[in-house]
Each structure stands twice: as structure tokens, then as C-alpha cells.
Amino acid sequence: METKYQIVDLQSQYNRLKQEIDPAIQKVLNDANFINGEQVKTFATNLAQYLDCNHVIPCANGTDALQIAFMALGLQPGDEIIVPAFNYVATAETAALLQLKPVFVDADPQTFNMDPALIEKAIGPKTKVIVPVHLFGQACDMDTIMAIAEKHALFVIEDNAQAIGAQMTNGKYAGKMLGTIGHIGTTSFFPSKNLGCMGDGGAVYTNDSVIATTIQKIANHGQKQKYDYELIGTNSRLDTLQAAILNVKLSHLQEFTEARQKAAAKYDELLSQIEGIEIPNRMAASSHVFHQYTIKLDSAEKRNELKSYLSEKGVQAMIYYPQSLHLQKAYAYLGYTKDEFPVSIDLCTRVLSLPMHSELKEKDVAEICEIIKEAFLVSK
């Protein structure tokens, strides 16, 4: 059956913003300044203002952002980086590429984020960085994580690829946007993200001027100025076309967020009536911007049955993520046993993400939930 409800609907978003996006692209084409054009600088300034952050350095993608962040801290091969086991691969991957050692921490079964109660057990003499990943649009417990980092003199790099626009609402960091609490924040502008471009893009941000200068050099071949190489760097730029698109979309980010939250509230209302489905948890200390709306089923069998039924009815649903990172072949060298990180393993068998995007209407959510109810009746 043709897919009626996609996990993300970029076409509809573009059609709605076409009258703003097309002229922005055309200006770049007319100016023919495709690398480091004025739109890149404007976007960096606008995003810094939005985040209330001192420095935003755009780069080529979210994975580069993580790599540049690690490089900026002067880490040495063998240094250990604490990362979540239930996560996309980029956070651990970039550490491994730099010959750093990823040290996995299990997930909290309610929030799906790194369980802060388990972090200190993972800290050893070589630990240098904690990387909280704000998964699916909700904050990690930053009060606890920052306190642990301060106690052990560790850096914190926030992977904010899925939660741009979310902020802390209670606690020590109330009012702070995610990504601006730790020493460095990173994000991705992959098209499906809450703030997405039409290609690849990313950014690194920090309130520390010294770190910012280092990041700027690393992202530009280690140059202080042209042909003056102070550091080993990389070539990672946000191109001007993507910056122009992001400038348009940034002005709509708040309405994107509100649309996602409205759709999530409708999902909550309708799915909470179905026995066997656990709706997403909300942390009292932060807002949730719903990069994904991820439910948890009673069993792997139920999850897989529901996914298949939805597909048959034209509703796309995705599994984020199908396998805990410690079980992936690429990370077998770390020596973890198969039964470590039981929460992460369990989540991989029971989570399912439903359509969630800025163009999703309440009537769409109602129809999707009706199909889910049908699926449960069929399976009885």
C-alpha cells in the first residue's frame, strides 16, 4: 500500500515555506558565493542569538561537529569517553575514529536517555568526557550530569542533534537551551531534524571563547588565517545554500516545535487509552520537542506486529534503534558481554517511533491512532 503517513514529511514543509526558501536560494545562486557566503555568518549569528550562546561555529554535518568537539579538547589516544549504549552510532564512532575509547552507559527505561545513576560507575582514571545525548527531543538530567562532571573534573559535550529548541524548565539550569549547558554543544541539520536543511549541515557551539577559537581553527584546516596552520584540523563547512535555507527555517523553529508538541499531546490522549502501549515520558525539568514520538510496547512480538500492520495500512513507523551499540560488530573490540546494558537491549526490542513532524495535523494523528487500535483488536 502507498504510504499515506510518513515518519517525516519534508515535501509538505517545503511547499509551505516555498515562497521564502526559493528566493533565499536564488540569492545565493545570483551572488555565486557558495562557500562562506554572508548567509553562513548570518545564520551563525541568528542561531547564537536563538540559543543565547556566545559562539556558534557551523560545520558540514552533525558527525563532524562531534569530531571537532573532541579534537578541540586536546584529548589523547586511549582517553575514555562516556556515551550512551542506546543511541545512534555517531557519538561513539567519532570517539573511536580519534582512537578514544567509548565507554557505554545503559539507558533510563523511562526517558531512554543515559541513566545518570550509572555514570559514576563508568568513570575511571582515563575518563575525560561525558557525552549526554538528548534523545528523541528530551533533555538528559543535566543537573546531575554537570555535578558529576564537576566532581571528577570532566568535560561535557552535549549531543543535541535531536533536541534543538528544547530547554531546561527547572533546576540549576532553568531557562537554558539544550546544548549550551556543557562545555560544548553539537547539533545536526540533517533534513529530518527539527531544524533541517536540504542536504547535510551541522554546528558546534560553546560559551567558552578559548574553546570557540580552537573549534574555528580545527573546522578550517587548523588555520588561524589563510595558510597559517596552527593545529591539525579538518575541512568542515556549512555551505552557503544550506545556510540560506536554515536562516528561513530558523525563523519558523518555534512554530515547528509547537506543532510537534500539539501532535504529541494528541497522540498521548488517544494512545493512553490502549492497554499495552507506553507513551513517551516527560521530564519535569525540561521541555520536549519531539524529534521522535516513540512508544514502548509490551513485547518484541507486539512491536513487530504493530509495525507490520501500520505498514500494511500506509503508516510508516521506524525502530530507533534496532540494536544496542555494545552488540554491534564494530564495537566488539571493547569487550562488553552480550547481557550488559539490559535496559538498552530491552528498549531495542520494544520501541517504535510513529510519524512526527511539523506538518502533522490532529486529524492525521487521530487516524493513525485509530489504525493502531485496529491492530490491537486484530491481534487479540
Descriptive report:
By secondary structure, this protein is of the alpha/beta class. The chain has two domains: about 10-105 and about 115-250, Aspartate Aminotransferase, domain 2 (3-Layer(aba) Sandwich), CATH 3.40.640.10; about 255-380, Alpha-Beta Complex (Aspartate Aminotransferase, domain 1), CATH 3.90.1150.10. About 40% of the residues lie in helices and about 15% in strands. α1 packs across α8 (about 240-250).
Task: Produce a short descriptive summary.
With 380 residues, the chain is α/β, with parallel strands linked by helices.
Provide keyphrases for this structure.
380 residues, alpha/beta, Aspartate Aminotransferase, domain 2, Aspartate Aminotransferase, domain 1, 2 domains, seven-stranded mixed beta sheet, three-stranded antiparallel beta sheet, globular
